[in-house]
């Protein structure tokens, strides 16, 4: 069974893998809890679902409207009973943000997540006036999305464990990790992060005792390295 995914073939029965060089490092124990931040259409979500089994739980976060609809559809198609998905952007504050995407909503967002979210190319934390003045809105659309800190989410869900946090958020990596700071200190989850625009992920979490377990620089299908960190 293949979901209708404009980003590429998405066939679970064939064990489709994205970023195969780094794939083996995305590990969560049986009955564990995994966060898939930037879940897209669910490639990693499905992997984690099979890993944790019936006794575990996977929480997927995907703010993009079209990707979230495909993700939700895949949940129904493949019966992910141990998965919950949320159309949230994850950052270092709780509130509302704006997500930049293609006019039809189906193109990648490329972290065009504006207003207090992250510093990235080419938009940065621009005001609405600056966005219009520079013509950056032409050919695109902006959607309001709920923004959450992972610390807030953990508290809301009453979670008592967190084993893995996978992050692929097109340049907002530091914001995501800062918003999960208390959870990282409390649970020491494995971190699996795709690094965009040279974000110093390693330097940030070193303060908590995290060290590099693996660094995969040449990843098929991506121009960005993936770093895996564990807390010692």
Structural account:
The protein is of the alpha/beta class and 232 residues long. It has a domain at 15-92 and 149-231: Rossmann fold, CATH 3.40.50. 25% of the residues lie in helices and 25% in strands. It contains 7 helices and 11 strands. The strands form 2 sheets. Strands 3-2-1-8-9-11-10 form a 7-stranded mixed beta sheet. Strand 1 (33-37), helix 1 (43-52) and strand 2 form a beta-alpha-beta unit. The radius of gyration is 17 Å and the shape is globular. The termini are far apart. Mean pLDDT is 81; it is low at 1-15 and 105-124.
How do you describe this structure in short?
This protein has 232 residues and is an alpha/beta fold. 25% of the residues lie in helices and 25% in strands. The relative contact order is 0.16.
Write the layout of secondary structure elements.
Elements: E1 33-37, H1 43-52, E2 57-61, H2 65-78, E3 83-86, E4 88-90, E5 95-102, E6 113-114, H3 128-133, E7 140-148, H4 150-157, E8 164-167, H5 173-178, H6 181-187, E9 190-194, H7 201-206, E10 210-216, E11 226-231
Parallel strand pairs: 1-2, 1-8, 2-3, 4-7, 8-9
Antiparallel strand pairs: 5-6, 5-7, 9-11, 10-11
CATH domain fold name of the domain at 15-92 and 149-231: Rossmann fold
* Fourth CATH level, the homologous superfamily of the domain at 15-92 and 149-231: Vaccinia Virus protein VP39
CATH architecture tag of the domain at 15-92 and 149-231 = 3-Layer(aba) Sandwich
**Portion in helices:** 10-25%
Instruction: Flag low-confidence runs.
Output: 1-15, 105-124
Q: What's the total helix number?
A: 7
CATH class of the domain at 15-92 and 149-231: Alpha Beta
Summarize model confidence as the mean pLDDT: 81
Alpha carbon gyration radius: 17 Å
Number of strands: 11
Task: Give me the strand/helix succession.
Answer: EHEHEEEEHEHEHHEHEE
Structural class based on helices, strands and sheet pairing: alpha/beta
Strand order of the largest sheet: 3-2-1-8-9-11-10
Q: Could you describe the largest sheet, including whether it forms a barrel? A: 7 strands, mixed
Shape: globular
Percent of sequence in beta strands: 25-35%
Q: In angstroms, what separates the terminal alpha carbons?
A: 42 Å
């Amino acid at each position: 069974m293949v979901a209708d995914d404009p980003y590429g073939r998405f066939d679970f029965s064939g064990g489709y893998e994205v970023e195969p060089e780094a794939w083996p490092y995305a590990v969560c124990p049986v009955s564990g809890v995994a966060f898939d931040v930037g879940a897209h259409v669910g490639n990693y979500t499905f992997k984690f679902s099979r890993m944790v089994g019936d006794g575990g739980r996977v929480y997927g976060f995907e703010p993009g409207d079209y990707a979230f609809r495909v993700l939700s559809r895949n949940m129904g198609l493949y019966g992910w009973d141990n998965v919950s998905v949320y159309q949230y952007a994850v950052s270092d504050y709780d509130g509302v943000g704006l997500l930049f995407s293609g006019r039809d909503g189906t193109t990648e967002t490329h972290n065009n997540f504006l207003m207090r979210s992250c510093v990235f190319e080419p938009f940065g934390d621009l005001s609405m006036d600056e966005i219009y003045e520079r013509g950056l809105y032409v050919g695109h659309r902006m959607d309001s999305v709920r923004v959450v800190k992972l610390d807030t989410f953990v508290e809301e869900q009453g979670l008592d464990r967190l084993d893995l946090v996978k992050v692929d958020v097109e340049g907002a990596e530091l914001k995501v990790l800062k918003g999960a700071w208390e959870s990282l200190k409390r649970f020491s989850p494995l971190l699996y992060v795709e690094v965009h625009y040279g974000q110093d992920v390693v330097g940030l979490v070193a303060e908590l005792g995290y060290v590099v377990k693996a660094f995969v620089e040449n990843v098929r299908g991506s121009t960005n390295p993936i770093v895996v960190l564990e807390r010692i």
